[in-house]
Amino acid sequence: MTEAARQPASPPVSGERRPRSNPAAGLGGPSRSRVLDGRTPPSNQILRHLARSPWCRWEVPVFGLLAAAPWGLADAFNGIGGPLTSVLILCIAALGLNVVIGFTGLLHLGMAAFMGVGGLLLAILTVPTNPLEIGFLPAVCVGVCGAAAAGGLLAAATLRLRADSLAVVTLGFGEVVRVLLGNLEQITGGMQGLGPVPPPGAGLSLAGTDLGRAFVIDPRWFYLLALALLIGVIAVLRRLEQSAVGRAWIAFREDPVAAATIGISATRVRLAAFTVAAAITGLAGCLAAANLGTTGDPHSYGFGRSVALLCAVMLGGPGSLPGTLLGVAILFGLDIVVIPAIDAWSQQLTAAESAAGPLTLGSWRLALVGMALIVMMRFRPQGLLPSRRSAAELREKHR
Amino acid sequence: MSRWPARRRQVVAASPADIPLLDVDRLTVRVGGSVPVRDLELDLAEGEAVALVGPGQTGKTAVLDCIGGLRPARGGSVRLDGHRLKQSFTAATFWLVLCGGLLVGLAAAAAAVDVDSLWLAVVKRGLAVDEPFTPATFATRLRSYFRAELAIDRLADHWRIVTADGREVLAVRRELAEARELRHQLQAAVTARRTGPGTVPDLTDLVGDANEPRRLLPIPAVTLDRLAAGKQRIRFRGWTALAGGAVLGIAIGMAVWQQGRRSAAIAARSGVARTFRQPRVFSALTVAENVLVAAERAAVADVAWWKRWPGVGASAAADRAAALLQVVGLDEQRALLPADLSSAGRRRLELARALAVRPRLLLADEPEAGLTVAEQQSLAELFERVRQQGIAILLTATVPGPLTAICDRTIPLARQPESRQASPPRMARMAAP
Questions:
Q1: If both were cysteines, with which of A53, A109, B62, B270 could B29 make a disulfide (CB 3.0 to 4.6 Å apart)?
Q2: Phi, psi angle pair for A390, to nearest 5°
Q3: Structural domain tally of chain B?
Q4: So what's the pLDDT on residue B3?
Q5: What pTM value is reported for the model?
Q6: Residue B210 and residue B346 in one domain
Q7: For position A366, what pLDDT does the model report?
Q8: Which burial class, exposed, middle or buried, applies to B202 when counting CB atoms under 10 A from its CB (0-12, 13-18, 19+)?
Q9: What value of ipTM does the predicted structure carry?
Q10: Are B222 and B132 found together in one domain?
């Protein structure tokens, strides 16, 4: 018996209480719960809190740079602003998928369908060809809630399914939604999609400027909106990860049987995780529809998009928020931003002299991504930026 | 004795003396093709410790699984305080299942009545013809759609007579009164068609205006038949789909409820904790988090779900987890991952996690397996302290040892050779991958 166990454990004295009050957060590094200890003046406390908080590790520099980009790199931003906004929106969608795959370890192959549901509800409630037109913000709320409800229903219908069959059913769900989007022409606009979706600020004015016009004219507005929502989603997920619910989800992912023996109900975990993930992805779908001005081709909510999101999460490291962002930045950033830019540049260079047409990377991009994924799965299966928890789990499995 | 974290659940101990804490009645357990345990009788009082001792393959683990809700019993019953460990069917469950079923039914009905043309008829048509979208017009159009009636629309300075789904224009008139008259006649024709095949109206009256031939549309009998059949079809389809979908939805709801009905999670919430022969700790969580995650569940277990705001019970759970880590002697290692602990450490960690559930009954599966004699001794002291807190213990062991020595009773389990036999086809099935 160890020494500590032999000695009678004394009742907690007030002096010792603080480190013990939050054992999980208090140990790996400086505790965030120490901020309000009342010894330092408030302003100093807030500064210290900021300096110690994990936000300072990468979020503040990265998001600061991203927020400053439209002004600092005004010339370059005009070219890539729109695609960059799309990448930010896909980041939100991938974070939603990360809730299911990373936090609870369930495989979901139809995540893009929730983007379709969210975007469609937004479009139905705002396009001028429908008499509803309830405004952007209420419509986004309805879109997010609708996507969440769809996620909850899907989870309720698949509660008994284990890993592989669950993946197949979610894949089928995604295809059903895609086909419905294509075939219910009066409601969804069919293959052309439903539009035009008015810009977010339509009808509102701020200090004399018409926000609707501002969103149309200047892509920076939408870029900043997407960035703000992305930061909000990350804050919520970070909080979730550190909360009791998040820990319960991790426990369920690790060992469902042991989790059940401490009272964590698999039913509730699955319902909650699917609902939260669908809500986040539905938000991304709303933003994508508003950004494009239409819900677009139903195929953009099909299997291909779902798998691309899955690849991005696996590339970055499931369960890790920065990893997911990095995965999306690499996969979709390459696809949407970098390769078109390179192609445009090489076209300018070679168009004059080459008769055979310029060499385009665009036709090679899928091959490049595929090869990168194969190489990564061979040499770094835990992802580029694995979370501490996933890394520990993987290490344990390969012992 | 150390200060043990307070247990709220002891209130239930007011049960009559004749009802034991755990009452296992004629329990029969099946593992694969064999039935190692038949008609097991077992009573445990509050704070009693009992050991199931027997060699391997005698169903010790399976008995614990049955009591803990991890495995369904083949026969017999397990009661805690005289109640079976099942989630009851409450009023909330009833309403949730009913509403979910109706939702699925509505979705099915929407698919059956052609929600696409319903949308066109109810939502979009008014926009094309300048009609405001109000609840009144909404209700009118919904009614006319489900009655498969003809409707009058305004388009620019013309009045159109259209089918209720808005897809087909039957006639166009410049005057409203004229359009109404024509609609009346057409509707009569449709109704006549609907009442029986023998009463075909004379349509020549409707096509008779020779002065303005361009405005007159010939109405083919096919259209008339479709309109006549439409009402019955839509209603029949709608109601059958609603009923079928609702039944399906209620079935799904009941399956969801049944799924969580007899589960280890329910047993844990009723105060049954469990440890495993191979300690099953959460390798991705730190030692402290492993205990905390169980303490957090227990801290909100008595709180109604709408009061479970983030942070409710957090400090109580943290205090309890810290106290339990001290009790099992893992206070120093709390920031480590379970992989860094010794096997004895992992066993202690699992014990702390089980105690964090605030159990009244602890099921420990071969807690001494893989430990040295000294470690077994200290673990036995720990179990003795657990028992002194009023927690009943049911543990298993292959041979008597320090842990079985602290128990009040020992129940020997023996192999049942006859029960291990299976028919050759069955054995072949079991051997197949």
A1: B62
A2: -65, -40
A3: 2
A4: 45
A5: 0.83
A6: no
A7: 78
A8: exposed
A9: 0.81
A10: yes
